[in-house]
Amino acid sequence: MFPQFDESVPPNSTAVAIDRDKNSPHAVRWAIDHLIISNPLIILLHIRQKYNHQNSNGGYVESDSEMQQLFTPFRGYCARKGVLLKEVVIDDNDISKAILEYIGRNLLSNIVVGASTRNALARKFKGVDISTTVMKSAPDFCSVYIISKGKILSVRTAQRPAANTAAPPRQPSPGIPPQIPSDHGELDDPFRGQGMRGIPRGLATERLSWEKGSTPIRAAAHDRHRSSPSTLALDTIESTLPGRRSTGRDSFSDESDYSGPLGMGSLDISSKNLDFSSVPVSPRVSSASQSSRDLEAEMRRLKLELRQTMEMYSTACKEALNAKKKAKELNQWKMEEAQRFEEARMAEETALAIAEMEKAKCRAAIEAAEKAQKLADAEAQRRKQAELKAKREAEEKNRALTALANNDVRYRKYTIEEIEEATDKFSEAMKIGEGGYGPVYRGKLDHTPVAIKVLRPDAAQGKRQFQQEVEVLSSIRHPNMVLLLGACPDYGCLVYEYMHNGSLEDRLLRRGNTPVIPWRKRFKIAAEIATALLFLHQAKPEPLVHRDLKPANILLDRNYVSKISDVGLARLVPPSVADSVTQYHMTSAAGTFCYIDPEYQQTGMLTTKSDIYSFGIMLLQILTARSPMGLTHHVSRAIEKGTLAEMLDPAVTDWPAEAAESCAKLAIQCAELRKKDRPDLGTVIVPDLNRLKDLGRKLESNKSY
């Protein structure tokens, strides 16, 4: 079926070349989504090829039922999209040529072709694919789109608008019968009735069949001339052909007069006795034109092969460069891995060396501990001989020391039964106080008076961590710190030495009608507290911060020797519980809130300077025996006005004015709001308080003489 001019196709239409390949559906969908805008009509063009040799079934590769199956999915899709569909089937063995001639004769503005599914190497050996040929040879008024998997693979836009050069067939000359009877339908529109492909039945030999590979038109015309009495002029023949553009290739004589098969097909007119004797032929012009076309085709083929070869060479070069780059990266990675392996090996050797050093240090420490243990045993033995009256107590201590040596534990472990027996099952009568961390009971263990502090349940931690922390606390030894004698890890009980004179707070406020503390002892207590605090701040490997320094945590023995209690107790409780201790006594007369470092409250950064602030407030209380609330401000105003004597504790009648004022100024410096303005404990505070303590000692010795 020749791709002739179709009057039902409007100018500037869009066509899609379809086949049974996988890219045809993608091409149709893309054309409907992007090109069908103003003209809702799409032409589906299919080229049906014939066999190389005719067979009994008609010689076509595809049957009518197969054509039905080919167009069926596209009809449904176009119906859903609201697009008009025109189906065109052309019988030709040269697919590219049939598509190009249909474009030229119907002035299509867009042609969409699915990309070839073969790779570049297969196209090189099997010839140029259809999409490439259409791209190269399509008229310049038609835009060509190559679609692959729903995306544009290649595009060539039109260079000019299409001129309406297509003309309807000429009217036959007078006296010539019509070319096809009207009852057989139109030749230029073979797809009638719901867009179905097919030639009208009954047409038989009266149809115009343009098929590649058929008998040349010149010979066919000559045979008809011998068997028909009638003749047919050239104008009559041209009137039966579709309208063509007026170019050199469109002359009938150029394409009909050559020895081989006609490139565009043959004209079969069997029922009409037509005479071709008047048709002029020009073998020389036809041969030259055919040679020129063959040469141009060969040149295009060679150029295309050269370009494909260059593309393959470029691809190979790129792959070689990428392989070289990957090899270089792999070598670099290998070198880096080797370097990392060497570094890991060196690090392992260094770690092993450090571990050996630590083992040596550990052995040295064990030896030192053994020596110390031996010295302790000797000292205990001498003490046993010196204290005959305390023979039983010495035996208990030796037993405790023996247990310490066997278990390698630095504190005595008590059972809950021993604690309950010592406190009369935590009787209220044995209760001597209530601290921020829990109640305190008086008791007797190993025939020694002790104070037992029971931590609150919300402050309890794991047994193992509790033991570790208690070992740290029990290793702290200083004359001015309450000694931790042992603990009951299972129930969070701490056993301290018992202090007979209670807390400094109770003695300053003279609770229980206790005697007044003289100013000399007050200076001595302040110096002792500062010395013990310096010892804590210089602890190794890390300094210990008390966090809750106040008169209630300073205990006094029979001789008014001051000792700091609850040292490091903040390590045994979570930070939330330790911080809540400051809120525990807010309603009391001397609430803990007043002793907290303001900068620590704002930033949460706890340093040794925080203890110095608390020590400054406590030092002012030692001088005044007043509540800590606003005490710094009142003492500062009194010093400015010269009325410091009115602020001092009136129970002491013989305050040394100069020494008291020096001590008050030192306390105010310690209570500065910014920690960087507070004096150093070791270089300023301790020397000044030791000087005041020595002053009181000298005055007391002079008075005794």
From TrEMBL:
Bias (Pro residues) ranges: 169-180
Enzyme class: transferase
Domain Protein kinase: 426-692
Annotated Polar residues bias: 228-239
Keyword match Nucleotide-binding: yes
PROSITE patterns: PROTEIN_KINASE_DOM, PROTEIN_KINASE_ST
Region (Disordered): 159-199, 216-264
A GO term for molecular function: protein kinase activity
Gene3D superfamilies listed in its UniProt record: HUPs (3.40.50.620), Phosphorylase Kinase, domain 1 (3.30.200.20), Transferase(Phosphotransferase) domain 1 (1.10.510.10)
Catalyzed reaction equations: S-ubiquitinyl-[E2 ubiquitin-conjugating enzyme]-L-cysteine + [acceptor protein]-L-lysine = [E2 ubiquitin-conjugating enzyme]-L-cysteine + N(6)-ubiquitinyl-[acceptor protein]-L-lysine
Pathway where it operates: Protein modification; protein ubiquitination
Record has Coiled coil as a keyword: yes
Keywords, alphabetical: ATP-binding, Coiled coil, Nucleotide-binding, Transferase, Ubl conjugation pathway
Stretches assigned to coiled coil: 285-312, 352-404
Enzyme Commission (EC) number: 2.3.2.27
Listed SMART domains: S_TKc
Protein name, entry field: RING-type E3 ubiquitin transferase
